[in-house]
Amino acid sequence: MKQLDPKAVWLFFFGFILRSIIPIIIFSIWGSVFLSDFNQNLAGNNEFSFAFLNWLWVIIPIFLASCFVWAKLTFHFYRYELLDSGFRKESGVIYKKYVTIPYDRIQNVDINRGILARILGLSDLNIQTAGASAIVSRYGVMGGGAEGRLPAVSMAVGEQLRDELIQRTRQSKNQGL
Predict the structure, then answer these.
(1) How many domains does one find in the chain?
(2) pTM of the entire predicted model
(3) CA-based nearest residue to 64, from 142, 10, 140, 112
(4) SS3 of 95, please?
């Protein structure tokens, strides 16, 4: 099985950080208010304390290191291959996800390049299938998404995979019954 481009680690790393910024800001504000109230009650004064900032020198490096380790693990366990029967991918660090998409179910193959991916020279390959592109959970339909998504492949590999998938899809649909 093939792996993603090695620069995918950086794309995953920055993605984890960007998805975590809002909760970190909320937690920091809550922590500053909580610690300020706690310190005011202990000291008996009404001054705002910035004692929580001392912990940021410890928390931020640990957070960045854990994001990088998780990005490396995500990269390591994300694999794909083109079989005779269809496209296959494996992903997941703790919970594994195995997806096999038969070529005759493929409707469209798109290449997306976000700004960070363009900076790193990477592409996202989205393989869309008939009827399985919506994400369904116990809360209902959560929105559309490609069933077979390959994040962070190089531009050349992305275009080559797209062309190969389109060719194999045409061959499987032209074979008939």
Answers:
(1) 2
(2) 0.77
(3) 10
(4) coil
- Domain end residue (candidates: 51, 75, 99): 75
Q: Which residues contact 35 (CB under 8 A, 6 or more apart)?
A: 49, 51, 52
**Per residue in 106-157, pLDDT tens?**
999 999 999 989 999 999 999 998 765 555 555 555 555 677 889 999 999 9
Backbone angles phi, psi at 59, to 5 degrees: -70, -45
Which residues share a beta bridge with 140? 137
What is the C-alpha separation between 84 and 112, in angstroms, rounded? 26
The structure tokens listed for 72 are 């490396």
Domain boundary among 48, 75, 102: 75
Considering the domain architecture, whether residues 69 and 151 belong to the same structural domain is answered as no
- Ramachandran sector of residue 143 (left: φ over 0; alpha: ψ -120 to 50; beta: rest): left
Going by the DSSP 8-state scheme, the letter that residue 104 receives in this structure is G
How far, CA to CA in Å, does 3 sit from each of 9, 92, 150?
Answer: 11, 13, 10
Q: Alpha-carbon distance 52 to 148, whole Å?
A: 43
Is the same domain home to 169 and 93? yes
In the block, tokens 């096999």 appear at: 100
Contact 90, 75 (CB under 8 A): no
Q: Please give the structure tokens belonging to residue 49.
A: 């304390």
